């Protein structure tokens, strides 16, 4: 399928995806898939998928198991039925810790840019931005903070919020806008370009209004927030992919009350590059940054060059990422638990002596 001339080009189909599709088919036995066609998952309904193909959007019901299971944003191979038969190798996977803390929950595939949406009618929390940025780094995606509802507050509020974002990373870009007022949207569209972007933000942050403005259609339900704490209710209940007027692709996600980190430790290091750089100067590679001699972290905290709050956030997110990775490996998880149990027994035995 000629990528530039395909109707799927609007969904991000390009020569690389075309080659990936051909390679996938070449690796299957002859006649394994009847009349195979590529498509991009625009919505996951549990029992099936809504998939954009060159002939239009179709409902694809699950048949044989597909590995990995397709999520919104994936490119898949459909057969004549149509049933999904294969998932093309992903360029990225945006994931979070699953509810309950066990394992990962895929959010969207093949995302280039994560829009971290923060409503200015509530406190802009540094830790939430750091956590979401870690998810983006884990996926190999860029991050951009979007400050919404600027029309509902005074000019001093966005100015203070932009300073908070700079504390996370001085190079982290920010767009301040009012989706209802219509200003700031052109700048955001220019930043998005033809890429695939995912919106992540808590309920009531103005994501649905922003989605409708970017798509230029009422595709997402909007809701109010409670007076007093500006808490919102979920108006987006599933992940869905939309086409943007500028040629980009947007994945809307339900509001997230808590950003559970399920990420590689390298993604945490990328989010806290300044802290990692200091830690690398410690005398011992396994320094716990407590009472060890030659600890560069303790020295930086003492001389004020490292903010204690930033250090604490780094510790918390790194520990959460390490714990999530450990829980995802049942064998290693049981081994560590046995080690802790044996250590506890030894400590109790020593106390009785």
Topology:
Layout lengths: L14 H12 L10 E8 L3 E6 L2 E6 L13 E4 L5 E4 L5 E5 L6 E6 L3 E7 L6 H14 L2 E7 L7 H13 L4 E4 L8 H8 L3 E5 L6 H9 L24 E4 L5 E4 L12 H7 L1 H7 L16 H8 L4 H20 L2 H23 L1
Parallel strand pairs: 8-9, 8-11, 9-10, 11-13
Antiparallel strand pairs: 1-2, 1-4, 2-3, 4-5, 6-7, 12-13
Task: Outline the structure in words.
With 353 residues, this protein is an alpha/beta fold. The chain has three domains: 7-87, Nucleic acid-binding proteins (OB fold (Dihydrolipoamide Acetyltransferase, E2P)), CATH 2.40.50.140; 93-252, 3-Layer(aba) Sandwich (Rossmann fold); 265-352, Ribonucleotide Reductase Protein R1, domain 1. It contains ten helices and 13 strands. The protein has helices at residues 15-26, 126-139, 156-168, 185-192, 207-215, 265-271, 273-279, 296-303, 308-327, 330-352; strands at residues 37-44, 48-53, 56-61, 75-78, 84-87, 93-97, 104-109, 113-119, 142-148, 173-176, 196-200, 240-243, 249-252. A hairpin with a 3-residue loop joins strand 1 (37-44) and strand 2 (48-53). The radius of gyration is 23 Å and the shape is globular. The chain starts with 14 loop residues before the first helix and ends with a helix. Mean pLDDT is 82; it is low at 223-237, 255-259 and 339-348.
Tell me briefly what this model is.
This protein is of the alpha/beta class.
**CATH A-level architecture of the largest domain:** 3-Layer(aba) Sandwich
Estimated radius of gyration? 23 Å
Distance between the termini: 76 Å
What's the story with the biggest beta sheet? 6 strands, mixed
Output mean pLDDT: 82
CATH topology of the largest domain: Rossmann fold
Number of strands: 13
Give unreliable regions as ranges.
223-237, 255-259, 339-348
The gross shape turns out to be globular
Beta-strand content: 15-25%
If strands are numbered along the chain, what order do they take across the biggest sheet? 10-9-8-11-13-12
Under CATH at level 1, the class of the largest domain stands as Alpha Beta
Residue share in helix: 25-40%
Helix-strand pattern, N to C? HEEEEEEEEHEHEHEHEEHHHHH
Counting helices, strands and paired strands, the structural category is alpha/beta
How many helical stretches? 10
* Count of all domains: 3
The CATH superfamily of the largest domain is P-loop containing nucleotide triphosphate hydrolases
């Amino acid at each position: 399928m000629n990528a530039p001339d395909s109707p799927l080009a609007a969904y991000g189909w390009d020569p690389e995806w075309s080659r990936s599709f051909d390679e996938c088919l070449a690796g299957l036995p002859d006649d394994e898939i009847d009349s195979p066609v590529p498509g991009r998952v625009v919505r996951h309904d549990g029992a099936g998928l809504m998939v954009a193909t060159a002939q239009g959007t179709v409902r694809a019901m699950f048949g044989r198991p597909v590995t990995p299971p397709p999520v919104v944003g994936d490119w898949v191979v459909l057969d004549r039925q149509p049933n999904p038969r294969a998932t093309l190798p992903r360029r990225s996977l945006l994931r979070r810790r699953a509810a309950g803390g066990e394992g990962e929950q895929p959010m969207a595939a093949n995302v280039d840019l994560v829009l971290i949406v923060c409503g200015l009618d509530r406190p802009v929390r540094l830790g939430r931005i750091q956590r979401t940025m870690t998810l983006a780094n884990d996926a190999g995606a860029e991050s951009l903070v979007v400050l919404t509802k600027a029309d509902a507050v005074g000019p001093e509020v966005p100015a203070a919020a932009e300073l908070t974002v700079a504390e996370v990373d001085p190079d982290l870009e920010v767009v301040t806008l009012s989706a209802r007022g219509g200003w700031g949207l052109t700048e955001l569209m220019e930043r998005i370009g033809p890429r695939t972007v995912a919106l992540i933000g808590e309920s009531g942050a103005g994501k649905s209004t922003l989605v409708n403005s970017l798509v230029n259609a009422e595709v997402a339900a909007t809701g109010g927030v409670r007076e007093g704490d500006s808490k919102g209710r979920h108006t987006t209940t599933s992940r869905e992919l939309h086409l943007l007027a500028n040629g980009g692709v947007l994945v809307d996600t339900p509001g997230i009350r808590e950003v559970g980190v399920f990420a590689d430790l390298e993604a945490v290091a990328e989010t806290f590059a300044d802290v990692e750089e200091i830690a690398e100067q410690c005398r011992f590679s396994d320094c716990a940054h407590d009472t060890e001699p030659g600890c560069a972290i303790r020295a930086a905290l003492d001389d004020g060059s490292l903010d204690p709050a930033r250090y604490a956030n780094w510790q918390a997110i790194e520990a959460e990422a390490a714990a999530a990775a450990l829980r995802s490996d049942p064998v290693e998880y049981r081994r560590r638990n046995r080690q802790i149990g044996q250590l506890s027994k030894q400590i109790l035995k020593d106390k009785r002596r």
